[in-house]
């Protein structure tokens, strides 16, 4: 989640007029892949496409890739992008809604300075574009269409490369000054393990996939046995993806098991802390790791969380995200009203 | 803070009609003392009184004591309690707003079952009574009249026997399902020190005055030198009050210093976690310990907190509660509109 104000506007609007189409586009811009969908007003996905996120070049290359993959999704739906009512993008980094830019998108290539995603992508697609924070749009998706439709106040927990949180209170997203929901950096072990953010003891230092990979590599280098990196190479992955972790677990890999056990403990403490602060009705767990490990791990995280909750007589519901792999793109499409 | 729903109503209203008086009463019902005030609509305290909270008997004895001390405050203001527009009570325990009861008031004598504070105290005082959660009313006091009048979204941190949190977002208190703001039980050290709540690693296990006393006694029993208990006895206190801790610090007591250093580290991590979740504009620090140790410790807590905040370029303001010792009672008086 970004560190800059998101202000009151939920999204950035381009000046293009709204179209009458009942079709919207949604793009989930991740550090690993770009997922695009075309969806109708009955929330049926009419077409979808995905491709790896460019690892070289810069923001324009990423925007070009987003246009390409949305074009492919539109092709699959049998329409042109310019016929869509609009396209919502769930993006990492710092979003400036007034300027229509995204900056400091950490996992994307050479993307430090603000880049005009709204105008650039809007020009390529021939329709209006709105950009929202990826975690917030995914939470909104689960809230409106997914696992949490029965609840008014929820915490979305997106367990992937890092751990992001989306907060909805009484039906409305809570952004704070733009950086609310940074639950990955809740401290669960003061003075403890170094986090990828540079701080110590954050939940993400134990449960973020990136931090888990760093830890696995260190322990492997120190002589601990693991097949994690063999599996990674065999599958042609540049890093320990959720799929690599899952495969290692299937093989009974001890190190993978140990690190995932630690991650569950950390998620239990960190999300439990959030529940003590917010007292929301439901927690929805998504993200690459959350979706890959599914209900069994949601159950484990819930079991690790409950002991930390003070109002122990009525803990929140803990739910697996229902929108699955397409959740990010579906949530982003909701930016288009 | 209570574990039961506070629902939407901020307070419990008795059926008595409102009076035209410009004077209100406020009672801060603490585990150690009962503080009462009479205050006018210009928010000038016209009379005040305090007495120790009964340590024996039951809820009726506590209610009798509340009536007695409010009568003394009214005497000081030159009025009778029945002439007041109403009396607000900031109470620990579980408040049932519909029933007008308080239950499970942990630090008060034999107070488990719901007791009808609104009707009982209202009868004794001859005016309407409203009861709110003590931490929430104190936070509202700082928000409306104290340190945080310039902000819309704040976290009140009440550092005393335990650590309670009051949350105001965009001008409105956030109660969750009644147990929001239980910041004392944010986990700062997973698997760490035993908390007075029975859990492990809570912020309160390191920074709550009760937990600090338990820790001090254990270390003292183990042979560690300290004057804490001598000072306590000399001052005729049954426990390590904030004043005892302050006196020991003034004497350069090593154990007091060590435990207060730990408390500051814990408060930094725990409150920092809350800031990462909520991204509020300001943190107000009050409570017995917070007020006793004042600005120098607020500065230390802020310094310990900043390194944990992800949005490090614009941390919240960290402020000492401005209403001081009377803050609880003044906040409670705001329950009367």
What attributes characterize this protein structure?
homodimer; 337 residues; alpha/beta; Nucleotidyltransferase, domain 5; 2 domains; 5-stranded mixed beta sheet; 10 helices; 37% helix; globular; disordered N terminus
Structure explained in plain terms:
Two copies of one chain form a homodimer. With 337 residues, the first copy, chain A, is α/β, with parallel strands linked by helices. Chain A has two domains: 23-139 and 327-333, ATPase, nucleotide binding domain (Nucleotidyltransferase, domain 5, 2-Layer Sandwich), CATH 3.30.420; 149-321, ATPase, nucleotide binding domain (Nucleotidyltransferase, domain 5, 2-Layer Sandwich), CATH 3.30.420. The first copy, chain A, has ten helices and twelve strands. Chain A has a five-stranded mixed sheet, sandwiched between helices. In chain A, β1 and β2 (33-40) form a beta hairpin. In chain A, α1 (59-77) packs parallel to α2 (117-125) and α3 (134-144) crosses α10. In chain A, 60% of the residues are buried. Mean pLDDT of chain A is 93; it is low at 1-11. Chain A binds chain B through residues 3, 153, 165, 167, 169, 174-183, 185-191, 197, 199, 201, 265-266, 269-270, 272-274, 276-281, 307-308, 310-311, 313-314, and chain B through 3, 153, 165, 167, 169, 174-183, 185-191, 197, 199, 201, 265-266, 269-270, 272-274, 276-281, 307-308, 310-314.
């Amino acid at each position: 989640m970004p560190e800059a104000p998101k202000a009151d506007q939920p999204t950035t609007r381009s000046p293009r007029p709204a179209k009458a189409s009942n079709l919207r586009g949604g793009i989930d811009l991740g550090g690993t892949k770009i997922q695009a969908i075309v969806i109708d007003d009955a929330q049926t996905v009419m077409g979808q496409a995905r491709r790896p996120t460019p690892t070289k070049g810069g923001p324009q290359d990423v925007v070009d890739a987003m246009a390409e993959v949305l074009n492919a999704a539109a092709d699959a739906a049998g329409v042109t992008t310019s016929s869509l009512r609009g396209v919502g993008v769930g993006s990492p980094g710092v979003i400036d809604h007034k300027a229509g830019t995204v900056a400091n998108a950490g996992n994307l290539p050479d993307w430090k300075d603000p880049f005009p995603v709204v105008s650039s992508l809007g020009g390529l697609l021939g329709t209006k574009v709105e950009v929202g924070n990826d975690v917030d749009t995914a939470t909104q998706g689960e809230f409106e269409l997914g696992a949490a439709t029965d609840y008014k106040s929820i915490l979305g927990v997106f367990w992937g490369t890092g751990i992001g949180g989306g907060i909805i209170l009484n039906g409305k997203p809570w952004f704070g000054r733009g950086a609310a929901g940074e639950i990955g950096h809740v401290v669960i072990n003061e003075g403890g393990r170094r986090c990828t953010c540079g701080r110590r003891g954050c939940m993400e230092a134990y449960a973020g996939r990136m931090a888990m990979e760093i830890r696995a590599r260190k322990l492997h280098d120190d002589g601990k046995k693991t097949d994690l990196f063999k599996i990674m190479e065999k599958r042609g992955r540049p890093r320990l993806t959720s799929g690599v972790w899952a495969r290692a677990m299937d093989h009974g890999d001890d190190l993978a098991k140990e690190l995932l056990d630690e991650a569950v403990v950390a998620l239990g403490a960190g999300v439990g802390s959030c529940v003590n602060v917010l007292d929301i009705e439901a927690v929805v767990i998504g993200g690459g790791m959350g979706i890959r490990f599914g209900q069994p791990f949601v159950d484990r995280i819930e079991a690790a969380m409950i002991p930390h909750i003070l109002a122990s007589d009525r803990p929140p519901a803990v739910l697996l995200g229902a929108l699955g792999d397409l959740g990010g793109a579906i949530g982003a499409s909701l930016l288009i009203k």
